[in-house]
Design goal:
Order of helices and strands: HEEHEEEHH
Number of strands: 5
Number of domains: 1
Strand order of the largest sheet: 2-1-5-4-3
Radius of gyration: 17 Å
Largest sheet: 5 strands, mixed
Oligomer: single chain
Distance between the termini: 52 Å
């Protein structure tokens, strides 16, 4: 167990530590939506499943320090759970998000050129 991290939590760490990340093929922008939780891993996962089904709660994440409009909105696609007997957490969970509208996200945050490249790539995939 990492004593520095444990001490930083006042020796009472949360059961679950979750971080929000864009999917590897999504625009790499910092997202809101990380979490800590003092519930069982099973309960946390059931909550994620419910959020995805009902499109609420952790289903949405937003580009940090942005307007929260459609171009700043990401949706939960999947997650990975990591456990270790050496961790001070029961589990670490990576929440993977994709932009709701990749074209608008790219255009706003990376420029028209990147947005056009995205459209060109989509044309190749659909043809």
């Amino acid at each position: 167990m990492n004593k520095t991290v444990l001490s930083s939590w006042g020796f009472k760490p949360p059961n679950i530590y979750a971080i929000s990340m864009p999917l590897p093929d999504a625009p790499r922008l910092p997202l809101s939506g990380g979490a800590i939780a003092n519930m069982s891993l099973d309960s946390f996962v059931k909550n994620l499943e419910r959020d995805m089904e009902k499109q609420k709660g952790r289903y949405y994440a937003y580009v940090m320090e942005a307007d929260r409009d459609e171009s700043d909105t990401y949706v939960l696609k999947t997650w990975e759970v990591y456990t270790s007997p050496d961790s001070c957490y029961e589990a670490m969970v990576i929440l993977y998000y994709a932009p709701l509208n990749p074209y608008l996200t790219l255009k706003k945050h990376m420029g028209e050129e990147w947005a056009q490249k995205y459209l060109d790539k989509q044309m190749l995939v659909t043809n």
